[in-house]
Amino acid sequence: MAKLSYQPGSEVFANGTKGTIEKVLDTDRLLVHLEGTKEPKVLQRTDLSAVPDNEPKRQVRDAIAHEDLKEAENRFTIIKPLLGQRVKGRDDLEKVAEETGYSVPTIYRWLSDYKDNGTLSSLAPKRKGSQRGQRRTKPEIEAIVEDRIQNDFLKRQRIKKTELHRLIANDCKSAGYPAPGYATICRRIDEVSEFEKMKKRRGPKQASERYGGAPDTYEEAQFPLSVVQIDHTQLNIMVVNSEDRVVIGRPWITLAIDVYSRMITGLYLSLDAPSANSVGLCLTNSILEKEGYLQSVNVDGKWPVWGLMHILHCDNAKEFRGKMLQEFCKEWGITLQWRAVGKPEWGAHIERMNGTLKSFLDNLDGTTFRGPQDRREYDSEAKATFTLDELETILVTHIVNVYHQKVHKTLKMPPIKAWNNGILGDHGCGLPEPVSDEKKLRLELLPMTERTIQRNGISWDNINYFDNCLRPWIKSKDRGKARKFLVRRDPRNISCVYFFDPKLKEYIKVPYRNKVRPVISLWDLRAAKKRLEDSNRETNNEDIIFRAHEEIERLKEVASKDTKKARKTAEQRKRDKRS
Question: Is 297 exposed, middle or buried (0-12, 13-18, 19+ CB in 10 A)?
Fold first, then answer.
């Protein structure tokens, strides 16, 4: 897929005509010389698109073998010093080549591949038919290797690699299998992260202290998007449902802020407690251009913030330490940093921003203030006025048209001016590059699993999904065992899953096998199963699960007038289905 760049000299398309960017006028307007015209024209950024290319589809991370991903990570480490905001010359390339032992043309090729695609997978060796996790070694031999590594090599009193190889060779001989080579064993060891090695040998505490992602010192932001902080907070305001304006509780907000300029880069508002899903949706909002989002929340204003951050800084909550976020950051070249234990000041920027928002909310109907002492006789529930959608519009309007435009006490200028100076000033880094593959970005922030394909399709949490695209893979075998395929889903809407087709090298949307089923969320599914468990009924039958869901919906309809929790759940599910 072609990549769009707003840098001067970049080729773009505008209304079907090819052109070249001559100058960036501001965050919204560019001077573009279109083919067939004498003079350059001032065009809106939103009118530009990438020049189509005829190159084959780029590799997708989920389709790449483990050893090739390791090689891609090695290549990224080598070229990372050359990926800064300033232009690197031949001398820089030669210095890296001398330090690493690779040739200048090789490093230049890697650099070009990465700049063209912007993802780790673009650096993986190009191999035909290479699948993630695919190995030439038999599964039975792999099991022996894995057992010996876990139970002998990763112990506190660890053995040498040569001794490990000898033990594995003996086990294979006894089982009637050929022994894997020494190099194969070393590769399997290399696939175990340093964090996991220390966790097994010294315990999780020492592993977290040494490899937990927190640096010894906090890295200050040098330019826009060099450091972005992200965090959650529960807002100090009551909201009402959209049907009868009855109070349903206090919402949560996940917020991301650019440390250099103090611009808000993204947010996600929800009645659900913080989760990996909240993080993913906030990052999606942060990284993508905002014109469509502003229109969807009915806000008249400009929010010229988009692009991948260099460092994502967060606290140590479990939703920031999940595999999904770590894999996403690795693929898109983002350094994930967790706040060092005992260093709350490292998250001071986002904490202060949360406080600023809460001060603003103190002036709105339904505020809970900062606690009972501040609230005194004020009846927050009786005064509550806004639905969650209305509150989102109010918050975004305040962020875009007030907070971004107001002089920041520390910066001595408005955040929008600091942002523009950092991008378009004398030493500015230039407009951030937009993500070229929005679908890929959104999908890679969704939960993932591996599933076999049976006659009834894909089964995930006892719900079946089917589409004709699955037919070629039904009962597929991999070395005599049922082959597993990569599948993702959106927790807000599990009426479909996304199946990664190994042949097409892309994700395909697969709906319910029974298409008359209602759209439900993962939380709806869990509630239905809990109802079945509580009444000692079967929990792995799809028909029974959906009947339980129908029972709950009927009860909710009755209870919604009486219980705040039921109304709150119903309102959030309604928002999820609109997303």
Answer: middle
HEC string of 467-512? CHHHHHHCCCEECCEECCEEEEEECCEEEEEEEEECCCCEEEEEEE
When computed from its CA atoms, the radius of gyration of the chain, rounded to whole angstroms, is 27
**Interacting residues of 53 by C-beta distance below 8 A, sequence separation 6+:** 1, 2
Query: In 3D, which of 38, 48, 491 has the Cα closest to residue 270?
Result: 491
How far apart are the C-alpha atoms of 170 and 440, rounded to whole Å?
Answer: 45
pLDDT at 225: 94
Q: How far is CA 562 from CA 159, 271, 368, 548, in A?
A: 65, 18, 22, 21
The phi, psi pair for 278, rounded to 5°, reads: -60, -45
Over the range 12-22, which residues count as b (16 or more CB within 10 Å of their CB) and which as e?
bbbeeeebbbe
Burial (CB count within 10 angstroms: exposed 0-12, middle 13-18, buried 19+), residue 446 = buried
d(CA 403, CA 409): 12
Contacts of 253 (CB under 8 A, 6+ apart): 232, 233, 235, 267, 268, 269, 270, 354, 357, 395
CA angle 158, 163, 166 (to 5 degrees): 140
Helix (H, G, I), strand (E, B) or coil at 355: helix
The superfamily (CATH) of domain 227-439 is Ribonuclease H-like superfamily/Ribonuclease H (3.30.420.10)
Q: Left, alpha or beta for 97 (phi > 0: left; psi -120 to 50: alpha)?
A: alpha
The angle, 0 to 180 degrees and rounded to 10, between the axes of the packed helices 276-287 and 323-331 is: 20
Q: Is the pTM of this model over 0.85?
A: no
- Do the domains 139-211 and 227-439 sit in the same CATH topology, yes or no? no
What does 253-294 look like in DSSP terms, one character per residue? Answer: EEEEEETTT--EEEEEEESSPP-HHHHHHHHHHHHS-SHHHH
Question: What DSSP assignment string belongs to 200-244?
Answer: HHH-HHHHHHHHSS--SSPPPP-STTSEEEEEEEE-SB-EE-TTT
Q: Token pair 């090729």 is at which residue?
A: 109
Three-class secondary structure of residue 140 per DSSP: helix
Residue ranges of the chain with per-residue pLDDT less than 50 = 54-56, 85-87, 129-134, 212-217
Residue 536 backbone class (left: φ over 0; alpha: ψ -120 to 50; beta: rest): left
Residue 306 and residue 288 in contact, taking contact as beta carbons nearer than 8 Å: yes
pLDDT at residue 109, as a whole number: 82
Round to whole Å and give the CA distance between 551 and 554. Answer: 5
pLDDT digits (tens, 9 = 90+) for 92-113: 888 888 887 788 878 888 887 7
What are the residue ranges spanned by the domains of the chain? 11-50, 61-123, 139-211, 227-439, 446-511, 522-578
Q: For residue 405, how far is the Cα from the chain centroid?
A: 29
Taking residue 171's Cβ as centre, other Cβ atoms within 10 Å add up to 17
**What pLDDT was estimated at residue 318?**
83
C-alpha dihedral sign at 408, 411, 414, 419:
negative
Whole-number pLDDT of residue 210: 55
Which CATH fold would you assign to the domain 139-211?
Arc Repressor Mutant, subunit A (1.10.10)
